[in-house]
């Protein structure tokens, strides 16, 4: 009995630990991001200026302004963004001197560009990876001759295990020129980053999708064949509907992975705060902003970075949560 | 020949891919038209293997070896065709539409009840909705499941009970109007009441369709079938009219099996 209760307690605390970790990460992100949230509010999500120095017309000294309520600051920010001239940033930042007496400059941060960069690079990756991953898994679960199933399956699992930085290097030195040859534009671009991201999640997605498809009972396939179905029809009408939940799950898990991917994207996306005019322009994504800027960040910028991290966290959480919800609902 | 044979298995041997010994050796077995032929025997005797050769579902997995002949009567031309000669995928599809199959476990597809039955018909190229509907309804009626499902045709077939699912699968196969229906232990996963319903259905179906059934249940074989084949370790030991096999077997082995001395 005693051992039983120890066993239960150990299992219980292990399970609790994970919840505590999740909650503490959430709380930490939220607390650190709070100053930026108060400063910029929801507008942060659609504001495309990052680290821009702007003039704030105000009689109040800086210190007072900081202590005013959230609402007025937000209003002032909106006002300032709309019609104040943007002064090119000189090195000093907030404490920059030499301004007219009644004008305060401050640096504002908006997350629109990295958010858009993250979403677009992920979408490109998914658009590239989903069809190919489906093709691979259909081939492996239905079409491939026996002697090919093992080696190809193994190769896919190995590919899935390659560290992302290697994909980044390969992408930068070998893949980017090829992309440029085909699509033009810059080598370092949203498109290159998205494609390499797609290549990176491809094996992962293919492996899980294959496993999901392999759970289709063979009698089910056989009975479709014995009604005179072709391979394509069996895949389309029996395997896909049967493995649907698992396939969607694999896509969403890969999506979560693509959203948070840092290294491979950092190599390829260009790290510039610019809305990409076309797919072949460079831009930046949330994880890359975080990786590049934490070193020298302080104050508002630090908080803005945490705000971005918080956005990414919530975003991934929603996606994985949706996937889980889908699984649970289907299994009932 | 006085009695018509729909299928005729001649000197048939079968070896699974990679196996050293053949699983079936020189089987000779006639399948009479519009009769029920039962295959009995202990586990591993090869009866399911033989059944699965009759619509060449084995060929979904490569590397198996066939020898001998399995003739299928072409009722329009009256000629026999050796189904072991089939090589093209199109011909396999045609064969499987003529020789349907029902498995041990019910295998409803993940779609609605209506779509399940309509599936084979759609594959066969029937697109006209009224014809489709007519055929589905008549197949469901013919499979003694119509009254239970007529109000829920649009519901997921997975929601039916095991016995209903199995009858749905039979309806699905019957909808294609096959000449032969192969049943691979169709009731072994079902309760006695569902089993009774399926057995009744089989007796009903043989008016139009020739039936080959593999069963572990000897009472079932004796109740249902007109002819019985007893198999043992890859060989056909005895084949005869069912009452002869059960009441007056020629072989000692058959007698021991049907009287329950081994198995």
Question: Could you characterize what this model shows?
Answer:
The complex is a heterodimer of chains A (332) and B (263). Chain A is mainly α. Chain A folds into 2 domains: 49-109; 112-327, MetI-like (MetI-like fold, Orthogonal Bundle), CATH 1.10.3720.10. Chain A has helices at residues 2-40, 62-67, 70-83, 112-143, 146-161, 164-183, 190-214, 218-225, 231-260, 263-268, 286-293, 299-331; strands at 50-57, 103-109. Chain A has a two-stranded antiparallel ribbon. The model of chain A is unreliable at 63-97 (pLDDT under 50). Chain B is 35% helix and 25% strand. In chain B, strands 6-7-8-3-9-10 form a 6-stranded mixed beta sheet, with helices on both faces. Chain B has a 4-stranded antiparallel beta sheet with strand order 2-1-4-5, with helices on one face.
Unreliable segments of chain B (pLDDT under 50, ≥5 consecutive)? none
> Kindly, what is the distance between the CA atoms of the first and last residues of chain B, rounded to a whole number of angstroms?
35 Å
Shape verdict of chain A:
globular
Sheet-strand content of chain A, in percent, reads under 5%
Keywords, separated by commas or semicolons:
heterodimer, A: 332 residues, mainly alpha, MetI-like fold, 2 domains, 12 helices, 5% strand, globular, B: 263 residues, alpha/beta, 10 helices
Brief write-up:
The complex is a heterodimer of chains A (332) and B (263). By secondary structure, chain A is mainly alpha-helical. Chain A has twelve helices and two strands.
Compile the SSE list and pairings.
The complex is a heterodimer of chains A (332) and B (263).
Chain A: H1 2-40, E1 50-57, H2 62-67, H3 70-83, E2 103-109, H4 112-143, H5 146-161, H6 164-183, H7 190-214, H8 218-225, H9 231-260, H10 263-268, H11 286-293, H12 299-331
Antiparallel strand pairs in A: 1-2
Chain B: E1 5-15, E2 24-32, E3 36-40, H1 47-53, E4 65-74, E5 79-82, H2 89-98, E6 99-102, H3 113-123, H4 129-142, H5 146-149, H6 162-174, E7 180-184, H7 192-205, E8 210-214, H8 218-224, E9 227-232, E10 235-241, H9 242-247, H10 252-258
Helix pairs in contact in B: 3-4, 3-6, 4-6, 6-7
């Amino acid at each position: 009995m005693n051992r039983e209760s120890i066993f239960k307690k150990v299992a219980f605390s292990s399970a609790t630990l994970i919840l505590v970790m999740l909650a503490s990460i959430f709380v930490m992100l939220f607390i650190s991001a709070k100053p930026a949230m108060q400063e910029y509010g929801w507008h942060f999500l659609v504001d495309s200026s990052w680290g821009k120095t702007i003039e704030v017309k105000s009689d109040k000294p800086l210190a007072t302004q900081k202590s005013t309520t959230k609402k007025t600051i937000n209003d002032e920010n909106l006002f300032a963004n709309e019609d104040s001239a943007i002064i090119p940033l000189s090195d000093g930042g907030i404490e920059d001197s030499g301004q007219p007496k009644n004008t305060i400059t401050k640096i504002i941060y908006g997350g629109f560009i990295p958010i858009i960069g993250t979403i677009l690079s992920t979408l490109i990756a998914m658009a590239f990876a989903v069809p190919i991953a489906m093709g691979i898994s259909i081939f492996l679960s239905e079409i491939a001759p026996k002697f090919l199933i093992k080696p190809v399956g193994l190769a896919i699992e190995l590919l899935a295990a390659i560290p992302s930085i290697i994909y980044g290097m390969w992408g930068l030195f070998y893949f980017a020129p090829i992309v440029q040859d085909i699509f033009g534009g810059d080598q370092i671009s949203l498109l290159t980053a998205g494609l390499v991201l797609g290549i990176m999640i491809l094996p992962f997605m293919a492996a899980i999708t294959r496993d999901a498809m392999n759970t289709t009972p063979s009698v089910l396939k056989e009975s479709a064949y014995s009604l005179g179905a072709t391979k394509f029809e069996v895949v389309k009408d029996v395997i896909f509907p049967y493995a649907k939940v698992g396939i969607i799950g694999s896509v969403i898990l890969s999506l979560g992975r693509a959203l948070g991917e840092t290294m491979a994207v950092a190599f390829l996306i260009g790290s510039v705060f610019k809305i990409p005019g076309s797919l072949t322009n460079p831009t930046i994504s949330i994880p890359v902003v975080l990786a590049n800027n934490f070193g020298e960040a302080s104050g508002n910028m630090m908080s803005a970075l945490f705000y971005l991290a918080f956005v990414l966290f919530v975003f991934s959480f929603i996606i994985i949560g949706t996937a889980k919800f889908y699984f649970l609902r289907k299994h009932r | 020949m006085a009695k018509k044979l729909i299928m005729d298995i001649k000197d048939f041997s079968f070896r699974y891919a990679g196996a050293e010994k053949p699983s079936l050796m020189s089987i000779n077995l006639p399948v009479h038209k519009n009769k029920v032929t039962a295959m009995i025997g202990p586990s591993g005797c090869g009866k399911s293997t033989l059944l699965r050769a009759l619509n060449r579902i084995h060929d979904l997995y490569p590397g198996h070896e066939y020898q001998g002949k399995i003739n299928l009567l072409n009722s329009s031309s009256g000629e026999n065709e050796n189904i072991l000669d089939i090589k093209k995928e199109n011909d396999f599809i045609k064969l499987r539409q003529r020789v349907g199959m029902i498995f041990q476990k019910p295998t409803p597809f993940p779609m609605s009840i209506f779509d399940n039955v309509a599936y084979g018909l759609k594959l066969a190229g029937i697109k006209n909705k009224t014809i489709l509907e007519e055929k589905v309804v008549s197949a469901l009626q013919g499979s003694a499941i119509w009254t239970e499902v007529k109000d829920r045709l649009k519901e997921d077939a997975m929601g039916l009970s095991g016995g209903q699912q199995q009858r749905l699968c039979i309806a699905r196969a019957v909808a294609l109007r096959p000449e032969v229906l192969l049943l691979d232990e169709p009731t072994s996963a079902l309760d006695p009441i569902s089993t009774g319903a399926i057995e009744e259905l089989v007796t009903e179906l043989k008016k139009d369709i020739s039936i080959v059934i593999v069963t572990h249940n000897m009472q079932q074989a004796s109740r249902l079938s007109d002819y019985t084949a007893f198999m043992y370790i890859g060989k056909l030991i005895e084949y005869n009219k069912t009452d002869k096999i059960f009441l007056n077997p020629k072989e000692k082995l058959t007698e021991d099996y049907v009287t329950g001395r081994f198995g």
